[in-house]
Design goal:
34% helix; single chain; globular; Rossmann fold; alpha/beta; 10 helices; 2 domains
Length: 336
């Protein structure tokens, strides 16, 4: 049976409102972050014939689909690419499949659409063959009751038994997990799935998001000890009203606790991690010009604080933040 998150996101993805909420579907900073991670992995794992990318919390494939569609023209990359798209929303995955069909991707065999699901499964793959490279996207429909070990085994199977070159997660379900220990264990899972010389990029809400709304309401309730039966227990926790009438959902916006989560991704002594701003808290963009103005703020902010740890005040200035893990020293990287 579907879980709460699947029901909420199936409803959210069912129409066009989610995908069309902004005139700019993929932020410049998001594509820059993914492209940078891919470029670094391509060098660090130059002997691997396949560049594999996990999108954890894939949704409708907003960022990764755009990357796959434009991949051959990006910086001369010609390596075979395997993407594993993991999400608990059946509707999100089906919309992403439809999008890939319109872009010349062909189904590889039959796509599974079981009506009753009690655990995650591999739904099937799409492929596009071009002159210089082949891109395969394997869709994995997760189940909310799957254990971390079950998820790890399923995603490793989808990647032909190998660890991932790049693991990404774009404004995903990582925010919907109550409790610091559970969030850290999820980051650890992403680290375990990723090659030691691979790359991780996770974007999520910072405390500059949801201000003057649900976040302030629930922080006041938390301070007063009035949170009822909800899982709100730490700074940054809140509940918000979903698209399903009467149903509220848990959400966590990150501050300096993101550092502890990124530390949980480390599997090797040589790995580094750092944080970058991805978006400032402007309204949804109605033009590319507005998005570019926001991006220039992002670039200036990242340059101004490069080389030091973020403070709570830094997180309060930012709408979306990116956490990175790499085997490359961040001082050698041009930040977003």
């Amino acid at each position: 049976m579907p879980g709460i998150q699947e029901a909420i996101y199936d409803e959210r993805f069912a129409g066009d409102a989610y995908d069309d909420r902004s005139a700019v579907h993929v932020l410049t900073a998001e594509m820059s972050a993914l492209q940078g991670a891919v470029d670094r992995a391509a060098v660090s794992l130059s002997n691997n014939p396949v560049l594999s990318i996990l999108d954890w919390g894939y949704g409708t494939g907003r960022v990764t689909n755009e990357f796959m569609i434009s991949y051959p023209g990006l910086r001369g990359n010609k390596r075979e690419v395997r993407v594993v798209a993991y999400d608990v929303s059946r509707v999100g995955l089906e919309k992403a499949m439809h999008n890939l069909r319109t872009q010349g991707f062909d189904e590889q065999g039959q796509i599974a659409h079981p009506k009753q699901v009690t655990k995650g499964y591999i739904a099937g793959s799409f492929r596009r063959v071009m002159k210089d490279t082949t891109i395969t996207c394997c869709f994995v429909h997760g189940h909310e009751e799957d254990t971390p070990d079950m998820i790890k085994n399923l995603l490793t199977e989808a990647n032909n038994g190998e660890s991932f070159s790049v693991t990404s997660s774009w404004y995903s379900g990582i925010g919907h997990m109550p409790g610091a220990a559970r969030r850290q264990s999820t980051f650890k899972l992403l680290g375990d799935l990723t090659h030691p010389q691979g790359e991780i990029v996770v974007t999520t809400s910072a405390t500059g998001d949801w201000v003057d709304g649900w976040q302030d309401i629930w922080q006041e309730r938390l301070a007063q000890g009035y949170v009822g039966e909800t899982p709100v227990c730490e700074p940054g926790d809140m509940m918000y009203e979903t698209e399903i009438a009467g149903l509220f959902n848990f959400y966590h916006v990150y501050s300096t606790d993101l550092e502890e989560c990124l530390e949980a991704t480390h599997t090797d002594d040589g790995q580094k991690h750092w944080v970058e701003a991805i978006r400032f808290p402007d309204p949804e963009f109605v033009s590319q010009t507005e998005e570019q103005a926001n991006y220039q703020q992002v670039v200036a902010f990242n340059q101004s604080i490069r080389g030091r740890l973020w403070t709570p005040d830094d997180y309060r200035q930012v709408h979306t933040v990116g956490g990175f893990r790499s085997s490359v020293d961040p001082t050698d990287i041009n930040v977003t």
